[in-house]
Each structure stands twice: as C-alpha cells, then as structure tokens.
Amino acid sequence: MNKIYNPDKAEWGTVLKRPTQTVADIEQTVEAIFKEVQSNGDATLKKYTEKFDGVIIENLVVSENEIEEASALVSQQLKDAIQLAKNNIEVFHKAQKTSKVSVETANGVQCWQEKRPIQKVGLYIPGGTAPLFSTILMLAVPATIAGCEELVLCSPPNKEGKINPAILYTANLCGVKKIFKVGGIQAIASMTFGTESIPEVYKIFGPGNQFVTVAKQIATKYGISIDMPAGPSELLVLADDSANAAFVASDLLSQAEHGIDSQVILVSTSKDMIDAVEKEVEKQLPELPRKDIAEKAIANSKLIYVADDQTANDLINAYGPEHYIVCVENEDFFVNNIKNAGSVFIGNYTPESAGDYASGTNHTLPTNGYAKQYSGVNLDSFMKSMTFQKINETGIKEIGAAIEIMAEAEGLYAHKNAVTLRLNSLK
Length: 427
Ligand SMILES: NC(=O)c1ccc[n+]([C@@H]2O[C@H](COP(=O)([O-])OP(=O)(O)OC[C@H]3O[C@@H](n4cnc5c(N)ncnc54)[C@H](O)[C@@H]3O)[C@@H](O)[C@H]2O)c1
Ligand SMILES: N[C@H](CO)Cc1c[nH]c[nH+]1
Ligand SMILES: [Zn+2]
What we know:
Layout: E1 4-5, H1 12-15, H2 23-40, H3 42-53, H4 64-73, H5 76-94, E2 101-106, E3 109-117, E4 120-124, H6 134-146, E5 150-155, H7 165-173, E6 178-181, H8 184-193, E7 203-205, H9 210-219, E8 225-226, E9 234-239, H10 245-256, E10 263-268, H11 271-284, H12 291-299, E11 302-305, H13 309-319, E12 323-327, H14 331-337, E13 343-346, H15 352-357, E14 383-391, H16 393-409, H17 413-425
Parallel strand pairs: 1-11, 4-5, 4-7, 5-6, 7-8, 9-10, 9-12, 10-11, 12-13
Antiparallel strand pairs: 2-3, 3-14
The structure holds nicotinamide-adenine-dinucleotide, L-histidinol (HSO) and zinc ion.
The site of zinc ion (ZN) has 4 residues, from loops.
C-alpha cells in the first residue's frame, strides 16, 4: 500500500477511484455476445465457454449423476459447515418476512399491499478463480423462503468441463434442480433470452467479475431485472488505536484475495494504526496461497489518514463501500451516521468473512459505489409488492366526485365516465 493519503474533499473522487472497468468499457463485447446468444443459443454458449473458460462443453446441463458424484466428493466436515451457515441464513432471511399492510383509506375504500414471489429467477454463481458455493446459500435460501417457483443456476465450468463439487452439493442441498455449466457474459445472456437448454428468467441475481456485472446491467435493456451491480469485492475498514492491527490487516487481505480488481481501503485518525496495519499486511500477505492476486488488489488500495471523525464519516459516505468494518471507540457515532454501505461489521471480533459465510446476513452486495442507491440481496429482492383495493357503494360515493373532477381536469373523460356511470346507478 505504502503511500498514506490525506486527501482534501475535492480529491476524494480521484483518490478513491475504483479500479474496475465501466459499462462503457465492456458494453460492446457484452452486446455482441448477447446478440449471438439471442440468435444461436447453445452453440454460442459453447463457443464462448471454449474461448473464455478454455474448455469444450458437450452438454451444458448438469446431470443427476454429476450431482451424486459431487456429494461423495465433499467432506462431512464441509457439509456440516455448509449446514450451519444455511441454518443461520435461513433464520435471518425468514425474519425478514413482513405481514400484509391493509387500511381503510376512506369509508368503504379498503386498500392493501401483499408480496408475491418472482416466479422465475436466475442465480449466477461465480467460479472463475474460486468456486463460491457460499453464494448459492445467499441466493437459493431467500428465493426458496420467498416461494420462487423456478430457480435456474449458472456457473462456469473448470478446465475439465465440470462444476466444482461443493457448488453442486450446495445447489442440491438448497433444492436447485436446473444447473448449467456456463459462466460470464454468456451465462447472463442465456438467462436473459433463454436457449435450447437454458430457460429464460424474470430476474437475475448474483455477484461476479466486471464482465458478469456489466452483462447484468445490459440485461436490463432486454426487459430483465437484476438484484444490483454486485461486482469486484471491496472493503473499507475504519480503525483507531482500539483496533487490533493484525485483525484489520487480515480483513483487508480477505477481500483483496478475491480478484486483482478488488479494492480495500483503510481509514484512520491514527498514523500509528496505519503504520501498524501496513506492517501486518506485509507480514501476512506472503503466507497466502492467493498472494499474487491479493498483492495486485493491494496495489489498487489506499491508506487514508483523516484529521477527525466527521471527515472520516463524510469520506466513507462519499465512497459507499460494499463492506464497512467499524473498529473504533466512537463506534456509535459511525454506526448511527453511515448512510451508504452494503453491509456493516462492528468491533474487533466481527470479521468480514463472517458475513461472507455464516453469520446469516447476505453477501451479495452492491459494489462500485452503488450502495448509495441499492440494497444488498434480501428476502424482498425475490418478491414484488402488489396492491389491492376493494371499494363498496359507500366508498365510491365518498371518493367518486373527486375522481370525476380530477379526470376532467386532465381531459380524460373516459376515466370520469367510469365513475359517473357507477354513481348514477346508485341514485
Ligand atoms: N459484490 C458481491 O456481492 C460479490 C460476492 C462474491 C464475489 N464477488 C466478486 O465476484 C467475482 C468473481 O470473479 P471470477 O472471475 O472469479 O468469477 P466469475 O464467475 O464472476 O467470472 C468468470 C467468467 O468471466 C468470464 N471472463 C473471464 N475473462 C473474460 C474476458 N476477458 N472477457 C469476457 N469474459 C471473460 C468467463 O466467461 C468466466 O467464466 C470477484 O470479482 C469477486 O470479488 C462479488
Ligand atoms: N466477499 C464476497 C462478497 O464481496 C463474498 C464471498 C464469498 N466467498 C467469500 N467471499
Ligand atoms: Zn469474500
């Protein structure tokens, strides 16, 4: 990391710039692949799987046999850990259920709002550099609680043309039946348009690299909705002298190891803490199996010194991190005043990894500053709110005249007439 920044407000944007490519950078590639998938279906999926994943795939569909084989390859210890995580994710997402909202807005005018599941959902499970089977829990568990009818899962195959056993095991555990060996832009295109093998869906969920993220954004042009742009992982840690520098460094490295385009930021009012964390990063980094990736991500990352708590909080809100660890004595001030963050982790014993796997919160979160306008995946992501109303004779008499006057003022006489006919029938 090296350089310690102490930016003026005017420099925040430049210093905190993310290393990821934008929609404009990748759009052309995405559009070209989308068009090809739309006209040539499976053949295009196979072509780009060969090009980007380096493997020739005969059949995109994962068979029952492959799922059974996978289960035998996953250790009991890992199965138990997955079950523990699943239980906690279920508890937290079931608790997000809300009850029907119903109110009589005027005499005889009953209005209510109820939620209904999105019928067909697509789940993208990243698998380029690491098989993120934990993401299945984050998507399939709330989709099932919401009551979604059709779950379609896509994940890239490895060089042997297979999906990692832990992904297949977890998908099966979560009741996902339609699993396909395809990743990247081509996977998002397949769920957008549908192909001979892969059904189209109404909404696509899941994180991925910058190609996947831009592809999801482009999919919205074709009438598909998405959870949010959930791209390369990010973490911002706010630490003062009450923090444990080794813990902070381990957290920064945990997100740096995701990909070379990940970004991790340390913000502190203590230069001693910044120095201590930097030393710890240097100590811990060489021990990591993914040190080459983490080292490149660390090069995108920043150490930021700020003079006071208010400046720190303003800068963090301007950045809008995906993950935000608060490890300071003045914890309440920061927790109460955070406006833009995907998920917040508080105190020395709350590593970001807890949210990635097993505490119960969802790890599919907005990156690239999108925490300013998007929520992370939650139960409501898999549902739509529908409104209902029932008006009786008293009710139409109560509000009918107002509707007639408003419709007439908008010049919409058919609207007015729909009320007038009813009012006349009651005279
Ligand atoms: N924001 C979140 O909630 C969240 C959660 C988990 C993971 N992530 C992020 O997900 C990402 C996973 O990335 P990954 O690469 O390991 O897996 P991935 O599955 O997202 O992407 C792999 C696919 O990318 C495509 N691809 C690779 N190079 C390409 C190129 N040059 N042009 C076009 N397509 C190309 C290939 O088709 C490949 O199958 C990481 O960046 C990680 O930080 C984010
Ligand atoms: N940190 C990622 C979200 O940015 C989620 C994840 C999955 N596995 C490990 N981490
Ligand atoms: Zn992670």
